[in-house]
Amino acid sequence: MPVSAMHAPPRALPPVAARVDAALVELDRQIDWLLALSPIDNDGAWEAFEASGFRQAPPLRYIDLEIDLDEARQRLDALPLDDIESPLLSGLLSEKQRELERHLQLVRLRGTEGFVNASLDLFGGVDAGLRALADEILASVPHGAPLVADAGIDEVVEAVEAELEWYRGRAGDFKADVVVDTDIGSMMMVSHGTFYVDGGIRLPRARVQPLVQHEIGTHVVTRYNGGHQPLRQLEVGLAHYDALQEGLGVLAEYLAGYLPGDRLRVLAARVVAVDMAVAGEGIPEIHACLRETHGLPTNEAFDIAVRALRGGGLTKDAVYLSGLRDLLDHLHAGGELGPLLRGKFALSHLPVVDRLEEEGWAVPPALMPRYAHDDGFADRLQCCRDTGIADFFHMEPRA
């Protein structure tokens, strides 16, 4: 039974708020900033970097933009935010409008010197505590035993399709388009409800389900739950939702049975790379630091460096570790997991989303992730409450 089936039906948004909400959802769909900042021809860039003896990286290349940035900004500015009937809704929708303006600025400044400042304004940077945590993880978390990369694209797509079918058996309107792409710069990613997977993917079979739970069980499920809320921003994401989403995604990998130490090390390495990118370091310097100082494999160090230099210095990659840290703090303090899955929002928005539910403008999550139905889930969740972040990994896959 869907979780929300036992609760009263939600209350419709008032007219002006509903119109602004719908307009922001459409603009969010059109401003696909993540794809706009995802480099293309990464294989070619790697080959050129390797041929240079790891001393020189070619300029990053991107897809052509399909949105008129000036027209989109005008549409944002024209929204009747002052006429929204509820102060609670007005505050959330105004905050989202400002975030979308920053997204437009981020895309506009792609490849320019001003990009880093725009990224810092949107995602923040690396504070001293987060950098210290990253350094601690890289110094203390061991490499896991090497596993054979015995799963390829056919097995991954089969697992994804089976996962989607499992959810459709519980909610007939659950869906996500699956796109196989050989040039996405990530093994897997979800953007605007579409699941992208690298056509050349190779990974250990033990990591397939954890990554599927990260992408489908977190990003697609929370989008689905948000789509069943009166406030549709919970579908596309309230402002600054990224950190909690990525924290939940990594938590899902752990709850699915295998979060290796090397995965936690990658999240820490991303923080180091972002910190170096903000300081003006380039791909060769970041790559050398991650490889020589922290022992990351050569190709993985390159991928992390490229991610940190996207657009000219995209600081978003630091939120994976900060989001996990803050989520574990929430769980350590006795916070519940279920309410965080009502849609896409920041952890700081939790009291506001609770208030939305009190007002009837939000409901409990329609679906819980598949891992929450597994035997032993309660025990594994309790383990998360009892485990510090530097120990938040598995030495081997759960049987």
Question: How would you describe the overall organization of this protein?
Answer:
The protein has 17 helices and three strands. The protein is mainly alpha-helical and 399 residues long. The protein has a three-stranded mixed sheet, with helices on one face. A hairpin with a 2-residue loop joins strand 2 and strand 3. The two termini are 28 Å apart. 43% of the residues are buried.
Number of strands: 3
Structure annotation, total helices = 17
- Average pLDDT: 93
Binned strand content:
under 5%
Strand order of the largest sheet: 1-3-2
Distance between the termini: 28 Å
SS-derived structural category: mainly alpha
Instruction: Extract low-pLDDT stretches.
Output: 1-5
The general outline is globular
Helix content: 40-55%
Helix/strand order, N-terminal first: HHHHHHHHEEEHHHHHHHHH
Largest sheet: 3 strands, mixed
Rounded to the nearest angstrom, the radius of gyration is 21 Å
